[in-house]
Design brief:
4 copies of one chain form a homotetramer. By secondary structure, chain A is α+β, with helices and mostly antiparallel strands. Chain A has helices at residues 36-53, 58-62, 137-146, and strands at 17-22, 67-68, 71-78, 87-97, 101-110, 113-123, 125-126, 131-132.
Chain lengths: 155, 155, 155, 155
């Protein structure tokens, strides 16, 4: 692993999901900037909000469906500090979709400037007992519709 | 970026720092396992504890020294869920040391089993105004002593 | 201090500020309900959002104004657990307004049912050095306008 | 509710449990002091550590026993700001013990100075379905032993 850039920034593609996150006091550290574990919490939150839009809120996923989507890899590049009072525009891009996992890229911009970006891999699991499983068909279809150019049938 | 393993596990090297972290209620999510942003907070905490050991506590670093060590890249691989009541053995390895940055690898084991590991790159900054700067000599020396095989003079 | 009810519920008065907070995954604990320190974070967040509405965002308060509003007392009564996927309707009531402090009551309802309520006392401080100070006139006026029946001149 | 002191400070009694909590970076806000929801998290953590000592760790309580101890009332008085690098000495006092609930007082001192104190009421519940229940006999006995002067038979 190097300290080089982890990503190239390609703002041309349409995100599968976008939302705005104001930087609040609870996010910020004694240096006056966002404490990076709070940025990682934003990553989880934008994924959760995307699942709401996909018609599969986490309450239903973890409740009646008895499933979850744990994160198995996470990569984040912090390009510039985020400050109290700024508003981050988060864009979630679907990078890869497989039978049992999904790769997402999340970019956070503030007034057109890239502040940080992340890649996460989530796997679909059943909770009792904890083991990986295929996406439920309706959820797979909703993800495919969110990213029509992607092929959802591999592995 | 792929969904492949980010790391190879090499338990043979001596860590620069180690400490134990019990998994507590505040770490855990509705699936009964550690919520991954709390694991990322553990990463920050072990770095902070290492700086204590280096003789440069964050209170002094951020206070009288007017400096900080923001994280610029973060990569984490979650191999197995961590559960309430388990105790994680965190080992911090110094991977690379440069004039203005340091690369660290952190492994979390539970009863000899690798649960997650992370790589972080930290840069040395002055806070007012925020800009990268060289490590203070005493801190650089303390880091070099923690990892004698590493060369602290590059970049 | 007793274990009796801390509050009487009087839903008849108009709140000075209201907003909706969805219960998200990050709020919830292994029992599947909101972990109470996250509810306390919601209390801080609703106060912060109210200060935005008052024309005095925390970024400006803590930044150019060099001031803060630390909480000096907090009382919370948790009436019923809040669950993932529910939406809380938070209502902030101004209870007392003095030259250097303000007393707020915050109620959280879900579908008309009281889930928790809190009382907080905030003091106005300057940060360097940390000492209590009178509200800036524009902020005092904005608070008085938010609660016209209250007398802002005592103590 | 008034903005008066919530507590009298009586340092003469022996705590049922004590532990030390260093103030770390993750606790602190842009004003450089502990963000109060993090202090509330400390309250939960000290209760959890006390249950470990009582022989009933939360992992067993929430796991095999299918029980929990939700907080139903919380009162906190913040006397003086806590800063990065300080070490808080937390003392937990058992105030009242009933068949289905317990009242605790927690004081945080730093170098002999009271920084904050809290009172919490916890109720014993079974989780599925969520309803209050009597303390398991072994846990009740352990609590009584922790506070021999208290009468555990009321209500």
């Amino acid at each position: 692993m190097s300290s080089q850039r982890l990503f190239d920034h390609d703002p041309s593609t349409e995100p599968a999901f976008a939302h705005r996150v104001p930087v609040i006091f609870a996010h910020c550290d004694p240096a006056g900037i966002v404490f990076y574990p709070r940025l990682v919490e934003m990553i989880n939150n934008v994924v959760e909000a995307w699942f709401d839009q996909l018609g599969c809120p986490f309450a239903r996923l973890h409740g009646e469906m008895g499933m979850g989507v744990p994160t198995v890899t996470l990569q984040v590049e912090f390009n510039k500090a985020c400050r109290l009072g700024e508003v981050l525009e988060l864009a979630l891009h679907l990078e890869s979709l497989r039978h049992k996992r999904v790769g997402l890229r999340i970019q956070a911009l503030c007034q057109g400037e890239l502040r940080w970006q992340a890649a996460v891999t989530l796997v679909c699991v059943q909770l009792q007992p904890l083991k990986s499983t295929a996406w439920p068909p309706e959820l797979l279809q909703a993800m495919q519709a969110a990213a029509p150019a992607h092929d959802g049938t591999k592995n």
